[in-house]
Design a protein that fits this description.
Length: about 130
């Protein structure tokens, strides 16, 4: 009986396919930062919302940095956190020109943590996928 052909490895996505979603997501965050009135946050804090928004960014950045998300390493997570933090700083700077919004270092911390969590989720998914042969 002939052997079944082994599946071919997935092609690496183009740079546009990897980085365009990152740019669009950054534009989405920029748009949110441009709002002059934000909805009231439960407990009065928006840190969880910052972390969740930047977790999405972290996932997309880690996917782009790792050339498709197949092999996410600790280095990729670190690079993703640096990119997320720098974008968070630029986002807070942008907010400082948008009254009544203001800059907040705690928001940057939440952005950094969120981007790290998004990248860590992709890292964990790689481990799960490898263990289960997916």
């Amino acid at each position: 009986m002939p052997e079944a052909p082994s599946p071919e490895p997935a092609a690496t996505p183009s740079s546009v396919a990897l980085w365009l979603p990152v740019a669009l997501y950054m534009a989405f965050i920029f748009g949110l930062s441009s709002l002059t009135r934000t909805p009231a946050m439960p407990g009065g804090s928006d840190k969880v919302l910052h972390a969740l928004n930047y977790a999405g960014l972290g996932l997309l950045v880690a996917r782009a940095v790792s050339r498709g998300g197949r092999t996410v390493t600790g280095w990729v997570v670190l690079v993703t956190m640096v990119i997320g933090t720098l974008y968070g700083v630029s986002d807070e700077f942008h907010q400082s020109f948008n009254p009544p919004r203001q800059s907040d270092a705690a928001d940057v911390l939440a952005d950094s943590i969120g981007s790290g969590l998004g990248a860590a989720a992709l890292y964990a998914w790689g481990i799960i996928r490898a263990r289960n042969g997916l």
